[in-house]
Predict the structure.
Amino acid sequence: MTTLLMAGIAESNASLFRRLRVPLGDPAAWIESDGETVAIVRDLEMDRVRQHSGAGRVTCPAEFAPSGGLSPDRETATAQAVAEFFRQRGVTSVTADRSLRLIYAWHLKRAGIELDYDAELGVLDRRAKRDDEIDALERSQRVTEGVMQNLCETVAAATADASGVLQFDGSPLTSERLRQAAAIEFLRQGFSMTHGAIVATAPQVADCHHAGSGPLRTGVPVIIDLFPRDESSRYWGDCTRTVVHGEPSDRVRRMHAAVLEAKAACSSRLIAGETADAAHRASETVLIDHGFVASRGTISDEPTIQHGTGHGIGLELHEPILLDAGGPEMLAGEVFTVEPGLYGRADGGVRVEDMVVVTRDGPKILNRLHEGLDWRA
């Protein structure tokens, strides 16, 4: 029987956290061997892990000290204890996931234990979400949409000065100001903006991951992309909308219509057994048929396609797999963002993003927020 090992810092290792169910900031290990699950954690965390995890046994490094004793360094001590656990059990071969730190591999090697790698360990089980995980993602998306609506309506309700710069409550409305407002509201609701947020307009938005800076202007599209984490569940929201104060240009309207059509085309392919490649290509084909070209890695004055159509989401903001060229078969219960976009220096950018669950019967879209450019109340 294969012996499995995951080890590291659960606070930043989603696969390890999913098993321990406690976001530990100290080193920890999860072992599956001979039908038993064992968690090795710091002694003062043992009771908490017993309460929340499904581990059959929760222990600490001190219970598996090698003959020379444990290092005073916590991570070294945990790695030593893991190797000693396997030595006492007579385990000679261990399979680990992609996140295993070198310190554990080194101590296993030193103990004469062979280490194998399973590319799907910790990935495959997280791809197909349980019902409770989908519920957590839906809650995160609902809170994200609420903040998104407030920001978009703020842009729409602003006034433009003689130079076209938007003013709100007596001062210029800037990308930084909207991000700050989002951060405060998310914090109030128990969410964090760990990776920030995007509030970007022309010309910066031509770089599709530019966070945006400076004042916003009338008639120019503003992409708002919010991706907060619910600190109670640790599942993420991720939603993008595009808002225009005043009247958008005809070209921006065409860009927006193409993006919405592309999003619908991709979403319709999110069915278990279909491939992520096919879903992505359905979206990209729509954009190309509307006359737009791909320019990945090259920022352009004209609106172009710069990225794939989406990514997996769950305990991490970006999880395998991608909705992109070469993407494999999708699983029932898998959750993706679907976010086609067009970006250029001259006209600005348009991106609209929903969160979608793959089912055997067709896509389940978790978003409810409207997709238009006009957010006037």
User: Anything to note?
Assistant: The CA atoms of residues 139 and 237 lie 8 Å apart.
